[in-house]
Amino acid sequence: MLIRPAKCVRGEIALPGDKSISHRAAIIAAMAEGESRIDNFATSADCAATLECLRELGVSIRQKAATVWVDGVGKSGFGVSDKPLDCGNSGTTMRLMAGVLAGQNFDSVLTGDDSLQRRPMGRIMEPLSKMGAEIESANGRAPIKIHGVNPLGSISYELPVASAQIKSCILLAGLNGNGETTVIEPIPTRDHTERMLRWFGVDVREASIGDTGKRICLSGDTRLTAADMTVPSDISAAAFFLIAACCLEDSDITVRNVGLNSTRGAVIDILRRFGADIRFENQGEQNNEPVGDVRVIAGLTARTEPLIKGDVIANLIDELPILAILGTQLEKGLEVRDAAELRVKETDRIAAIVENLRRMGAEAEEFEDGFKVRKSKLTGARVESFGDHRIAMAFAVAGLLADKGETEIIGAECVDVSFPGFFETLQDAVVYE
Ligand code: S3P
Question: From ligand 1's centre to the CA of 163, what distance in Å?
Answer without folding.
Answer: 6
